[in-house]
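Chapter summary example.
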Amino acid sequence: MSKIAVYPGSFDPITMGHVDIINRIARQYDQVIVLVAQSSQKQSMFTAEERKALIEKSLSHLKNVKVDIFGGLTVEYMKKANSQVIVRGLRAVVDFEYEMTMANMNRKIAPEIETLLVFASPEYYYISSRGVKELAINGGALKDLVPECVIEALEKKIKK
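The structure predicted for these 160 residues follows.
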């Protein structure tokens, strides 16, 4: 049986922190599915399809990574994908309470699914998608915060 991990998130946009975590977990699992959340509750700068394309471009060097879009409960997707592990990244202490709540909620719904918390590398722990968008809107430098393809996509979006 192959080991499949699912890394869900909005990825609006993908950052170097996300890329770092995916690179690290891709070494541990046969397949990693980066699951782009499609939510009508959240206003995104990029559509789910645009986010998927940016992630695929950013991770093209990883042959065991697949990107998918899903709008329902992550645990429902997990069952369909035959995965038992949800990967979540932790940047700072403030992330912990939210992630612990989500992990316990998922455990209640699907006790067979585990949540694996992966700490951000120190050089990336301060990077957030929200911060990147704010920086981009205000003309700040994005080098080393997001992949090159994301810088180009942000510049195009903001010029519109």
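To summarize the output: Helices lie at 16-26, 48-58, 74-81, 93-109, 129-137, 148-159.
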